[in-house]
Every structure is written in structure tokens, then in C-alpha cells.
Amino acid sequence: MRPDVPDQRPLFRDEDAAEPLVVRRRAPKEPLSRRRRLTRLAIVTVSALLVATGSAYIWVDTQMNRDVDLDKAANRPPLGKGTNYLIVGSDSRAGLSAEAKQSLKTGSAEGGRTDSMMVLHTGANGTTMMSLPRDSWVRVPSYVRPETGRRYGEEQNKLNAAYSRGGPDLLVQTIERNTGIHINHYAEIGFGGFVDIVNAVGGVRMCVDRDIKDEKSGLDLKKGCQTLDGGKALSFVRQRKQEANGDLGRTANQQKFLAALAKKAATPGVLANPFAAFPTVSAGLDTLIVDKKMNLQNLMSLFQAMKGVTQGTGKQLNVPVSNTNLKTSKGSAVQWDTAQAKRLFGQLQNDQPVSVPSSLPGRPAAAVR
Length: 369
Prior knowledge:
Layout: H1 34-63, E1 65-68, E2 83-90, H2 98-104, E3 114-123, E4 126-131, E5 137-140, E6 143-144, E7 151-152, E8 155-158, H3 159-179, E9 185-189, H4 191-200, E10 204-208, E11 212-214, E12 219-221, E13 224-228, H5 230-238, H6 247-265, H7 268-271, H8 274-282, E14 289-291, H9 296-310, E15 314-318, E16 321-328, E17 331-336, H10 338-349, E18 366-367
Parallel strand pairs: 1-14, 2-9, 4-15
Antiparallel strand pairs: 2-3, 3-4, 5-8, 6-7, 9-14, 10-13, 10-18, 11-12, 16-17
């Protein structure tokens, strides 16, 4: 009997019925071909990854430490054109064990200081990454520490003193007052978070044009190209004693490294693979501090902008300076070139083409390859 022919055997007989009831049987399904099975498996797998990625995105976004309220400061510069990110590397030891502090040679100092400060501007005229030396001689506004009630009067001091006194809030106020640049977003990472992020992307390749050995930071690099893990990367961006230009040489190296890190973190292999991307975006969350309006999309835009700088679509420079060894009551400081710096700040605030070159003499020790 063919499969598509009704089975004529009676299911049961009704004495009043003229004909017996019959049941039609479905033809058996043909087995799925290998191609169809693989296609179905791929669809299920992709759907699962999309759900996992979306869940990871939501989780990371909710874990961000949004402690900085940029809108509560008084007398802020007007909203400019484009977007300005203030990127800060602090010496926070949060999340580091005693063993990690010793191996990374971070010390155990309490309180807060900044190791790097950069303004990353994005807009219609491209991307500019401008470093602000932490020893810059600036006017620090008056401030009252909420936790102690101690009042600090307005005074000339090093830029790093603003962070030490009032953390991110006073630092942003000081930078805005001295530059006239409206800061749209704030992102700060501590020592532990920096190490975790570098390790999460599998290290960052850097090339140096000479041997560099610095006992204070623990750095020991040979001339040439090498991949730096989290510990070596931290030593590299902290060291300045071996730089001919001191703090300015360090800021140049920090720019090079952070741009290379952004380039590595934004590669298709990292972003397209949820299992690779998740550790990258989640690494360092314990020490990441951002403003209240920052979200994960903003952070990814920041990384993409930094990546663009490394690919020649932007500029990297230091704030123009006239004196790298200004004698002050607070020790040696860095004095900005007033005219050139004012011109540069105005160009960034108004999203105009940047025409002021870096005043840093010589060339940094690192190069991105």
C-alpha cells in the first residue's frame, strides 16, 4: 500500500453506518539534509549569541560607576561644538592585592593623584587628542570637600593638585576654567583596571627606538617591537625619568599607547566575538569612573575615535608650553604658552580645524606599528 493511499481497514464499525470509518496516515518526513541541519544550527547559534551579547551589553552598562555629575558645577563654559572627552588615568590602587601592588611597583600611597589627563575632541573637523601635563601651572578654583568640610581657596597650583583636593569634580572645573573647553564626558581608570583591560585584549604591541630601563616603575624594555602585557604597559605609561622631556615625554608615550590600545580593542576580531568582547568591555569596571550621562555606546565611540587617531584621521599633541621647568612655590611646574594654548583651546571648543602644532621638542620613544 502506498503511503499516500488511505488505510481502508475499519477503525470501528457503526451498526447504523453504511460504510466503515477510515483514518488517513501522513507520509513520513524525509530526513533533513546535512546542509539544512547546519543552517538550522547556525540560526539557533547566532540567535543565542545575539541574546548573550545583548544581555552582556545591558549588564556592563548597569555596572558602570557614574559618580561624576558634570552639570552641578557653576560657571561652566557654554556648550561647544563637537564632543570633548576628559580621559584620566589615576593612581588608584582599588582592586589590587598586596602582591599585585608589589609586583607592579605601584606603592601603597593613599589618596588620589592623576598619572595622565587628555582631552579627546571629536567633531566635523576630525579628532584631536590633547594631553595636559599633570604639572601644568594653572588657576585652581576654590573648593569645599564634602566629606570633611575643609575649604580650599582659589590659588595657582599644579593641575594634579585639583584632583588631589577635589577629585574629578574639581579637576573638571579647573580644566574648564583654564581652557574654556566644555567637557561633555569624563572617563577615569585606575591602575588595576588599566592592567585588566590590556590583558583582556591580549596585550598591546609597541615599538621603542631605544632600550628603556626604569627602576621606579619596574620597566625594562629592549629596543624594537614587543607586545606589552598589563604589568609592562602600566610601567611604560608611568615612567618619565628616562624621557629627555620628562612629563611631556611621558604624555606623548601615553598618547601612543592608549591609541594603540583603542586600536586593538576595536578590531573586528575583538568586537565581533561576544566571548572576546565581553571580557574587554567588562575588564576594569571596578576602577572605571564616568559621568552620569556616559553609557557604553559613548565609551565605544571614544575607543573608535582614539583608533581613528592611530590611523591618521586625527592629531595627537601636547598643550603648547613655553617653559618645562617653571620655578614655583609648589616646585618645578610646566608653563603653558598663553597665546598658542588659547588659540588651540578656542579651535577645540568651536570644532575648528586644529592648526597649532605640539610644542614638544624631539620625538617620543614609542611608535605604533
